[in-house]
């Protein structure tokens, strides 16, 4: 699961008001090379919750993203390459996503998060 996907997931358990961002507990992650596309990154940036991305990348051992981003940074190839690596090349293979409000764990197996709710959580 790419961090791009993680940035768009939240816990939908009944009664949860703050199910985003899901915390990552990584048992195994891998890096997969993806073609660098600066235009894609510039278009995706406004849709990304930056603090959630930084936190997710840090939980997987990647500490190269700045805490805050200014629009001028989107013109820096060095910044875009770091953003690209975190967003598209880091993959959570095994572990869990954890609801920040309830602590409910959603398993990630072979890169696929299981976000199915139990009957009493709907």
Automatic annotation (TrEMBL):
Biological process (GO), any one: tRNA methylation
One of the record's GO molecular function terms: protein heterodimerization activity
InterPro entries: Trm112 (IPR039127), Trm112-like (IPR005651)
Entry's transmembrane regions: none
The protein's assembly and partners: Interacts with TRM9.
Similarity remark: Belongs to the TRM112 family.
Protein name: Multifunctional methyltransferase subunit TRM112-like protein
Species the sequence originates in: Coptis chinensis
Organismal lineage: Eukaryota, Viridiplantae, Streptophyta, Embryophyta, Tracheophyta
